[in-house]
Design brief:
This protein is mainly alpha-helical. 69% of the residues lie in helices and 4% in strands. It has a five-stranded parallel beta sheet, sandwiched between helices. It starts with 10 loop residues before the first strand and ends with a helix.
């Protein structure tokens, strides 16, 4: 092999495997690159990027010492340590679609699966470096936030026919700048013109962004439904369809869309947070628990790891445990909540979390049927003088209601509402707060006692009151098959109609669908079969 022409570009390699490091260094040296820095830790890479400017980074996903490659790249972007003119080639021995889609959302210049050959690496490196070098003036202007000058430079470059291979990228950057300038009318015309030339995915995305900003939601909705069919625009479509469905108060559909997006690219923590918020709005405690768990899992060692993640994990575990009749599952969730609280105590000892932890300890006691102890623990807490965390305050209001301290719960709910009027939090939180406040006003007891009280009313022949209580319990715990069975039995055995025929038919169908898709206990299964034989098979619900 002839000696390669010496190159002076600065390259940083982040890989924790010595063999892989040696291969990459050898390959780069064979290609003529001399200025090479190597590290096996994300933390060292962060420090190097603070001190130096690089032309190219080759980052491995599978870093085992602290942050992984995804978390490193995410932090570099978040902290402004990754400059637009610096190319990024992401490499990974794992090619699981969820990982690949998550990484591609961070928009590296290239993604390579291990193992690869020097020739392939050479092609990728040269392509990235050439592109970055030709576009460096634009990137420098973008870094200075000189958007008008960047647009002028792009227009000049688009007039040079010798740069025709760069035209698609230049046009994409131009579209990005128009969006940053919030010039929606001009941007909309630009994206429409691009789509006349070629159906660029970035132009479709830009067009929809403009439609949403201009208030053309129906047109945007139609475009997004078409974008669902294309892999390169599916994630964008799911995220935005979820937002549109939420605005229309179609919370189930909104959750379905964001859940599908989270399944495709699970490492996006903002998406997982939205999934958690929507799932609790829908009383879907299992998905709420899953989202809280995934947030803890993917945030560990990252810049996003904080006490609230573990507190929310404990809250989601308790909420899920309160909604299920499976004693083994309750036990597992109980242990998970306890483990999450212990993590907060050991990992964030410097944070003042005593009050928040005490509320969660009380909720755990309530979960374990130690209601009086939970009530006493909450009664000992100081009144909420000032709200510093909406989630903490809301959790305390829920706990007070669960143990029967209704007046204190109402007062805190009012205080939270007043705080929200001043601070104006996200609409999704406001919707959840309003729902929790209204539901708990209608519930004299906590969710656990609601069903038990309804059973007592049914046994004493108080049909209408039992029906109302079971309907409320089913609304708060819509996936609890035991409650669905109790409601079904009440509707079928009541001596008189408890609701209009259409509502009765709808409730019967909902209950039966849930029961048929669930695993009942032996006694419940026997009761269901008896009801079917006596009532349902005859009426063919």
């Amino acid at each position: 092999m002839e000696p390669a022409v010496k190159r002076d570009e600065r390259i940083l390699i982040i890989d924790d495997q010595s063999l892989s490091q040696s291969f990459l260094r050898y390959a780069l040296e064979q290609l003529g690159y001399q200025n090479i820095a190597l590290t096996d830790r994300a933390q060292t890479a962060l420090q190097l990027c603070r001190q130096n400017s690089y032309d190219l980074m080759i980052c491995d996903y599978n870093l085992s010492k602290g942050k992984d490659g995804y978390q490193l790249f995410d932090e570099l972007k978040s902290r402004g340590l990754h400059k637009p003119a610096c190319g990024v080639i992401f490499i990974s021995a794992e090619t699981d679609p969820a990982l690949v889609h998550s990484v591609l959302e961070l928009q590296p210049d290239e993604f390579m699966a291990k193992p690869f050959v020097i020739r392939d690496l050479q092609q990728r490196i040269e392509r990235v470096l050439k592109r970055k070098q030709l576009l460096r003036p634009v990137y420098d202007l973008l870094e200075q936030n000189a958007l008008d000058k960047a647009l002028q430079h792009i227009n000049i470059q688009l007039g040079k026919t010798e740069l025709h291979k760069l035209f698609p990228l230049l046009l994409k950057i131009k579209g990005d700048i128009l969006l940053l300038q919030a010039n929606w009318d001009e941007a909309s015309v630009f994206f429409a013109a691009m789509l006349q030339i070629q159906p660029f995915s970035w132009a479709r995305i830009g067009q929809v962004r403009c439609l949403l900003q201009q208030g053309h939601e129906q047109q945007a909705f139609a475009e997004l439904e078409q974008m669902l069919k294309r892999q390169e625009t599916r994630l964008f479509a799911l995220d935005n369809l979820s937002e549109l469905e939420f605005r229309q108060q179609h919370y189930q559909q909104a959750q379905q869309h964001i859940l599908a997006a989270a399944n495709i690219a699970p490492r996006n923590l903002l998406r997982q947070q939205k999934l958690l918020q929507l799932s609790r709005l829908n009383h879907d405690y299992e998905i709420q628990y899953r989202a809280a768990r995934d947030m803890v899992k993917f945030a560990r060692n990252s810049i996003y790891e904080e006490p609230d993640l573990y507190l929310n994990m404990a809250r989601a575990s308790i909420d899920f445990a309160l909604s299920t009749e499976d004693t083994e599952q309750q036990s597992r969730l109980n242990r998970q909540a306890t483990l999450s609280l212990n993590m907060v105590q050991h990992q964030f000892a410097n944070h003042k979390l005593t009050g928040q932890q005490q509320v969660l300890q009380a909720r755990l006691m309530y979960l374990q049927d130690h209601r009086d102890k939970a009530r006493q623990l909450l009664a000992e807490l100081e009144p909420q003088a000032e709200i510093t965390s909406l989630e903490d305050a809301l959790d305390k209001a829920k706990a007070l209601h669960e143990v029967g301290l209704a007046d204190a719960s109402r007062q805190l709910f009012r205080q939270i509402t007043e705080h929200c009027r001043k601070q104006q939090p996200e609409q999704i939180f406001m919707q959840y707060l309003q729902q929790e406040q209204q539901e708990r006003e209608r519930m004299p007891q906590g969710p656990r006692e609601l069903n038990n009280n309804a059973v007592r009313l049914y046994q004493h022949g108080n049909w209408q009151e039992a029906f109302a209580a079971f309907v409320m319990a089913a609304q708060v715990m819509p996936k609890n098959a035991g409650i669905a069975l109790n409601l079904l039995q009440t509707l079928l055995t009541a001596p008189r109609p408890l609701c209009p025929p259409q509502q009765r038919q709808s409730l019967l169908q909902q209950c039966q669908q849930l029961i048929d898709s669930s695993k009942l206990k032996a006694g419940q299964q026997e009761r269901y079969l008896q009801l079917r034989q006596k009532y349902l098979d005859e009426t063919a619900v």
